[in-house]
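Quick question about two entries, pasted in order.
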Amino acid sequence: MTAGAAVNFLYGLMDSSTTPHDERWQERRADIPRQVDTAEEFIAAAKTDPPDAASSNPDPVDLWGKFDPPELPIELLPIAIEKYARVEGANMGCDPAGLAMAALTVCAAVISDTIRLQPKEYDEQWTEPARVWAALVGLPSTMKTPILNQAAWPAGRIDRKLIAQYLAEKEPMMNYQPPTRRTDRHQSSHVSKSKIPQSRPRRRF
């Protein structure tokens, strides 16, 4: 289809439309020749300058290859967590981003469930607890377990302290024995005998 035929075809589509032929419609109809000329220029440029075969067909990505993790951005995290991640990462010789994610997950785990987040400003019915789910992915011996242990041990120490405090407060209650109520044996036997109905006399035949 030539450029003139394309313009006439688009004119026919515009004229047969049921939309109001207002000023906006007139502007779009008048702009059809320019759009057709621009399309022809792009087509001509693509024919004269074909794309490089190497750039159009890049090498496939090796999904099982080794990739260097990106650097931990500066001033992205809270100051305490970022400083902790960088210092411990340098001491342990591991990626500080893994320590940062593990520390964020531990901090979210110790937040009480009474504190909840409201994702939508005007929807008070939808609330979520402050939870962060993270997973460290890496080959064996990339210090995944040491990173998790290093980030989780402070929470474990607090947890053990609270458990010991709870058991110490609970111990007096476990050893508590309620006082026994003493009863008079004569009184109880007298009452029990009085409640026993007397047997009927035997009839003689």
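Here is the second entry:
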Amino acid sequence: MKQKRAPGGGRKPRGPFKENRARLSLRVTPDIRRALVAWAKARKLSLSQAAQSHLQKSLSRFFHPRPDIIVLTEMIARVIQDVERTTEAEWGQSINFLLTLMNPVNGSTTEPFSAILAPA
């Protein structure tokens, strides 16, 4: 018969997760688990630590004192992703990308940013 571990006999949490005391069990789709495992491995975290990190980020958005800022940053991220898909360039790699992002109407890099913001 397999011997049961004594209470508190497992590995102790380390780093930013050392205060973990409460248990949480949940079921997820295989795709979510695979993505979470890959994310955890890339950051050298356990599956539990990766899940906790994502939950913390999600809850911080929900409880942020300025939800309008959260919405705006998510909108900016979506615009950047759309421009990256269209231009097939990463936003941080090219000044032309940033200029195009600042002027999405015609993609011109010659029009100054202030003219884009000025009322017509």
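Reply: Residues 25-62 form one domain. The CA atoms of residues 91 and 98 lie 7 Å apart. Hope that helps.
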